[in-house]
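User: Design a sequence. Structure:
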């Protein structure tokens, strides 16, 4: 696909749709998720989304002189069949007790529509590239942090080179 993207340069761009779930896990170079022997679909989804963000960052670095923009984005928590199936209680009312106070939050009705979730993808596709940062992560039409404070994910992107090597090996691609 790279030759086709190069032909489309300088307007070529790759937009990776990630998820806020990626904020919950650090990057790991265990792409087959065998580290603890227990498969957890929600955790694997979050790990895959973290890998997508790190790969987007790596591709931006690798192909910076090719005229191709690479962007990752989070569509927000959107009401989709996948969310309902994977996390059936997510859109229901939940209560979180914190030190000395109760916080009530109702997500139902506050989840985004599919159209609202697609907004930043479309915006990234249509923005002049000069206004965007290749390799960046976007949320609600603005650059956003790839890491949350105290989430232990910040240094994990150092694994990206070994992940790229593993992916090349899995797909039998040369360097």
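Assistant: Done.
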């Amino acid at each position: 696909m790279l030759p086709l993207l190069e032909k489309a340069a300088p307007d070529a761009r790759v937009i990776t749709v990630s998820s806020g779930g990626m904020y919950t896990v650090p990057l790991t170079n265990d792409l087959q998720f065998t580290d603890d022997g227990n498969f957890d679909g929600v955790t694997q989804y979050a790990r895959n989304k973290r890998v997508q963000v790190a790969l987007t960052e790596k591709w931006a670095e690798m192909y910076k002189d090719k005229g191709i923009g690479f962007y990752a984005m989070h569509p927000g928590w959107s009401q989709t069949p996948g969310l309902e199936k994977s996390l059936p209680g997510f859109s229901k009312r939940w209560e979180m007790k914190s030190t000395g106070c109760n916080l009530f939050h109702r997500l139902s009705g506050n989840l985004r529509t599919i159209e609202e979730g697609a907004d930043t993808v479309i915006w990234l596709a249509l923005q002049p590239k000069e206004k965007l940062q290749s390799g960046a992560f976007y949320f609600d039409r603005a650059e956003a942090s790839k890491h949350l404070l105290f989430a232990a994910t910040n240094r994990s992107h150092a694994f990206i080179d070994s992940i790229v090597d593993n992916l090349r090996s899995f797909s039998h691609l040369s360097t």
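The helical segments are 2-8, 41-62, 81-86, 114-126, 160-171. The beta strands are 13-17, 69-74, 94-98, 101-105, 137-139, 142-144.
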